[in-house]
From TrEMBL:
The chain crosses the membrane at residues 420-437. Its EC number is 3.2.1.39. It comes from the Eukaryota. It comes from Brachypodium distachyon. One of its GO terms (molecular function) is glucan endo-1,3-beta-D-glucosidase activity. One of its GO terms (biological process) is carbohydrate metabolic process. This is glucan endo-1,3-beta-D-glucosidase. The keyword Acetylation does not apply. It is an enzyme of class 3 (hydrolase).
Length: 438
């Protein structure tokens, strides 16, 4: 998560079937004296309908029968379904096993999931689940993978090859918030990203699995007003090759956007309603004359402006993290259950509208919410441990209309298989009737 000091935000005082067959009747008989004399007929070969040999007619039916046992993800690939996803962090000692987490996600109908490593117990749990999964290479492995392409190949052989496609891995995330951070990984990031992509290419998965890295708002030199968004000049030496890579591969630019942190950095001057997406006067960007009634959209458009200034105006911005904490330390008054519920509810409603932003109205916003669970072992301020949508027992923490784990509810995977099998049986029936008619 980005630090609060990296946020630049407006202040409250701102202006803020089949073809039909026709049978022809034979013509009426004519009197003999009017009948034409017979003429010799040309012998023509009698045309017979093309039919499969009896044994081969069963092949389409057999194919349909076999297809009904395969999950739908074999037939289609989607990198992000809809607009809503969630971060599944596991820095805790009281979380349910991954198999139960998968069931929880299916109950809640959350189809896009991001994890912060490549834990095999999680990958095993996600097999044939129908959920999109973004896996990650932690910061601690970035240097080794950057320095040695064989390390990237080993990582892909260990964490991708044995699982794809039964696990619908849609992305490999290399590191997290490296640029603008306090570490020394900036110089290694691009090489690590390229090596992972090349390893995926070697196993013919680079067109199916995206490679990316998320950024905090510390990468921005300016972000207010949104049209003034620019990247820090001292980071462009690292950002430029990454942006070129994303442009070449068609990947989006990932940004962690937290109105919560912006508000917490200056609660006396930042309108909490603007941060929470509640009714407020909002702000007007004097350069574009665009009105913003919430900080979330302003942060995204500042990112679009920075990309445009860097020469990548066509690149999509995707939010890799956003959320609001429900509790915190005494110095974090904005971290309340009411505020967390309000922000997450309004954000979910806004994402389900499948619309763009004021500056990019035709670019649908997609976001991963932070986070699935509260994580009791996270360090830092108290707010860090209270971003969860669900409690560790799988019950709902914030009332957003989600369904939690219940003993009487059947797993969503079984329902998906039943629905898919029923569809295949219907198609097989049509094929059987068509073959029978011939």
């Amino acid at each position: 998560m980005p630090s609060a000091s990296s946020k630049v935000a407006p202040r409250a005082s701102s202006n803020p079937l089949l073809p039909r067959r026709h049978s022809l009747l034979p013509p009426p008989s004519l009197p003999a004296h009017l009948s034409p004399s017979p003429s010799p007929r040309r012998k023509t070969k009698k045309k017979t309908p093309m039919m499969l040999p009896p044994g081969h007619r069963r092949l389409p039916l057999l194919l349909c029968f076999l297809l009904s046992f395969f999950p739908s993800h074999v037939l289609a690939f989607h990198s992000f379904v809809g607009t809503y996803g969630v971060n599944y962090g596991r820095i805790a000692d009281n979380l349910p096993p991954p198999t139960e987490v998968v069931r929880l996600l299916q109950m809640a109908r959350i189809k896009n999931v991001r994890i912060f490593d490549s834990d095999h117990s999680v990958l095993d749990a996600f097999r044939n689940s129908g959920l999109n999964l973004a896996i990650a290479i932690p910061n601690g492995l970035v240097k080794d993978i950057a320095a040695n392409p064989s390390k990237a190949m080993d990582w892909v052989n260990e964490n991708v090859q044995p699982y794809y496609p039964s696990v619908r891995i849609v992305a490999v995330i290399v590191g997290n918030e490296i640029l603008g951070g306090s570490g020394d990984l900036a110089e290694a990031l691009y090489a690590a990203v390229v090596n992972v992509h090349d390893a995926l290419k070697a196993v013919r998965l680079s067109s199916k699995i995206e490679v990316n890295t998320p950024h905090s708002e510390a990468v921005f030199g300016t972000s207010y007003p949104p049209s003034a968004g620019t990247f820090r000049p001292d980071l462009m030496v690292y950002l430029k090759p990454l942006l070129e890579f994303f442009s070449r591969t068609g990947a989006p630019f990932y940004v962690n956007a937290y109105p919560f942190l912006a508000y917490m950095s200056d609660p006396e001057h930042i309108d909490v309603n603007y941060a929470l997406m509640k009714p407020n006067a909002g702000i007007v960007d004097q350069k574009t004359n665009l009105h913003y009634d919430n900080m979330f959209e302003a942060q995204i458009d500042a990112t679009y402006a920075a990309l445009e200034a860097a020469g990548y105006a066509d690149m999509e911005v995707r939010v890799s993290e956003t959320g609001w904490s429900s509790a915190g330390d005494a110095t974090e008054p904005g971290a309340t259950p009411e505020n967390a519920r309000t922000y997450n509810f309004n954000l979910r409603k806004r994402l389900f509208l499948r619309k763009g932003t004021p500056y990019r109205p035709n670019r649908v916003v997609r976001a991963y919410i932070f986070a699935l669970f509260n994580e009791d072992l996270k360090t830092g301020p108290g707010s860090e441990r209270h971003f969860g949508l669900f409690k560790p027992d799988g019950s709902v923490s914030l009332d957003l209309g989600f369904k939690g784990l219940t003993s009487s509810a059947p797993p969503a995977k079984e329902w998906m298989v039943r629905r898919y099998s029923a569809t295949m049986i219907l198609w097989c029936t049509f094929i059987f009737l068509a073959l029978a008619a011939t």
